[in-house]
Amino acid sequence: ELQQKVEETELLKMELQMLETERVRLSLVEEKLMDVLQLLQQLRDLNISKRALGKILLSTLESCRDPQPGKARLFEVLDTLYHELTACELLQSQPLEKAQSRQSLSNPLVISC
């Protein structure tokens, strides 16, 4: 009976460790998603064309066509999209103070269609 309790305890420890790992993974995905949404908000405020935004999205999807081993697919796509958005010329040419003041005035996560 004692051996059974020890085994159950070990299983529960392993389960807890797996849950913690999943929580960390989801936290990283959430953080990257927030970054992407903030960049999309900034680009919307700068009146990026739908064509330019479509090109960024297609470029992202093309880059992620062949998944990299050991990397979560969702995080890989979000990370690639983040880098594609940060490379956008509109964001590069935008003055830093203007970008920060716009971010502080409105909720950067609300994107209207």
**Strand count:** 0
Compressed to H and E, one letter per element, the order equals HHHHH
**Strand composition percent:** under 5%
What distance separates the N and C termini?
A: 61 Å
Main pleated sheet: none
Low-confidence stretches: 96-113
- Backbone shape: elongated
Overall average pLDDT: 83
Helical content class: over 70%
- Work out the helix count: 5
Based on helices, strands and strand pairing, what is the structural class? mainly alpha
What is Rg? Answer: 20 Å
Describe what you observe in this structure:
By secondary structure, this protein is mainly α. The protein has a domain at 1-65. The chain contains five helices and no strands. Helix 1 (2-45) runs parallel beside helix 3 and helix 2 crosses helix 3 (73-86). The longest helix has 44 residues, at 2-45. The radius of gyration is 20 Å and the shape is elongated. The model is unreliable at 96-113 (pLDDT under 50).
Care to give the gist of this entry?
With 113 residues, the chain is an all-alpha fold.
For the structure shown, list the relevant keywords.
coiled coil; 0% strand; EFCC1 protein; single chain; CCD48; mainly alpha; 113 residues
Q: Which SSEs are present, and which pair or pack?
A:
Elements: H1 2-45, H2 50-63, H3 73-86, H4 89-93, H5 96-105
